[in-house]
Amino acid sequence: MRKLSMLLLMVLVLSLVAACGSSQPAPAAGGGDATAGKKVFGEVAAPPCSGCHSVAAGKKLAGPSLAGIGAQGEEALHQSIVDPNAKITAGFSADIMPGNYGSQLSDQQLKDLIAYLITLK
Fold it and tell me: What local confidence, expressed as pLDDT, does residue 66 receive?
């Protein structure tokens, strides 16, 4: 009986350690996953966001740097992705960013991408 109790205790402790040591981030507000969103940013969207936008402050590519973009909030980010001509960053022209990401990405991919962009504060 004592061995069984010790075994159950070890299983419980290992389960708690595994749960606490999980590298999965908590879902962001809006149901997005920032880790999945980083993948959308770099690989999934066509063309990938990272091909035109840097996340380093002051580093401009075809589009503006997205360093600090998370401070704009979820609604503004959503609008910038699905209707990129609604607000144009000074120094850039309209119609450079593709306007089809709203239809190209699934609702979950959009949420994930926004969750990632929110981390860029």
Answer: 97
Does residue 26 surpass a pLDDT of 80? Answer: no
Cα separation, 37 vs 112, in Å, equals 4
Nearest to 120 by CA among 55, 45, 60: 55
74 vs 24, 52, 105, 109, CA distance in Å?
Answer: 21, 21, 16, 14
DSSP string, 69-120: GGGG-HHHHHHHHH-TTSSPPTT--TT-S-S-HHHHS-HHHHHHHHHHHHT-
Separation between Cα atoms, residue 91 and residue 28, nearest integer Å? 31
Q: Using CA atoms, how far apart are residues 100 and 118, in angstroms rounded to an integer?
A: 21
Look at residue 15 and tell me whether its pLDDT is greater than 80. Answer: no
Q: Are 77 and 114 in contact (CB under 8 A)?
A: yes
Domains of the chain, with CATH numbers? 25-118 (1.10.760.10)
Q: Which structure tokens are listed for 81?
A: 């992705």
Mean pLDDT of the chain: 82
Q: What is the pTM of this model?
A: 0.75
